[in-house]
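>> Question from a student workshop board

For tomorrow's exercise we were told to take the sequence and the ligand below, predict the bound structure, and bring the output to class. My setup keeps failing. Could a helper post the expected result so I can at least see what it should look like? The ligand is pyridoxal-5'-phosphate.
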Amino acid sequence: MEKGQDILRLDAGEPDFDTPKPIIDAAKKALDDGFTRYTPIGGLPSLKEAIRQKLRRDNNLYYDSDEILHTCGAKQALFNACMTLLNPTDEIVIPTPNWGTYPSLAIMAWARMVEAPTRYEDRFILQPEVLEACLTEQTRIVILNTPNNPTGQVYSREELSALGNVLLKYPDVFILSDDIYEHLNYTDEPYANILNVCPSLKNRTVLINGVSKAYAMTGWRVGFAAGPVDLITEMEKFQGQSTSHTAAVAQKAAEAAFNGGLDDVHNMVKVFRERANLVAEGLSRIDKIDFHPAQGGFYCLPNFERVIESLDGVEDDQQLGDWLLEELGIAMVPGSAFNAPGHMRLSFAADNKTLEKGLDRLHKAFG
Ligand code: PLP
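>> Workshop helper replied:
Here is what the output should look like for this input. Compare the format with yours to find the bug.
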């Protein structure tokens, strides 16, 4: 890398926005009002009510209070569900490429991860016949994630419905629907999860969501799980003996986020959508890189195989990650971290100037 060249960070896993002011104000008020003590394990009743209303408003789904558990981020909701559902020898089906935490859930629960591979040619969308081939007597959980980290792709209603039709045939399998990027959807279709297209799976589906990505609240650590009451009750017991709950003040902030309407979310989504286009335009000018334009989240997962072939001394995406940092001053996460060798995850949780510079450097090197 030329001396003095700045490092362009295209590797962020969180929005580069600040938490909206009304949410910060609500948190300050909560502290003044004395929200400094233990809360119920499931969450403050007012937070659970806000989550209930959010699920009605945004997802057209109806839950009772005892079907909802607040958690320390979506991550803990996933962890609670896996620790509660999985026994050793059980299998958890994870479509690949996958977010890095999913395999660890299997490991921590002593269960077996079964990879359900997706293909670049299918936009990394899980095909029903692949899902079906992964399901066995031991399958306990299938994870679905749309919009997807790391692929940036969004499942259409038809694609979800095809998976739902398979899952209907396997009544012992639970579905964890990781909806954390729900609002960051740049397709023309409204967001849909598996329950929107297959409501009869409700008694064995857990919706996982939270405030981290949509409200730029990653550090507040508030997520939730919504699912069948028996399972939610068990997950709550597990949480009661581990973290208990997230900070009372963070719960009040999340409550304000859910109750505060979607104006700030829409403003942020507008910026992300523009950046998704900017990245797509920039990458389409680069000969050696194939990609699908991001449809959601803030990630794109371009295929760098032809770039790797063209570089002496670079054998795989991990070495390419080092090379890009050293030679071009660009930080991106190698696809191997997501079971996507040969790819790099480009995050557009970065300002336009950084993105333009990064795309320019890539174009100069590989265009
Ligand atoms: N699910 C996916 C697919 C993610 O990418 C992330 C964060 O990167 C999470 C869940 C975790 O969300 P939280 O910060 O609410 O724990």
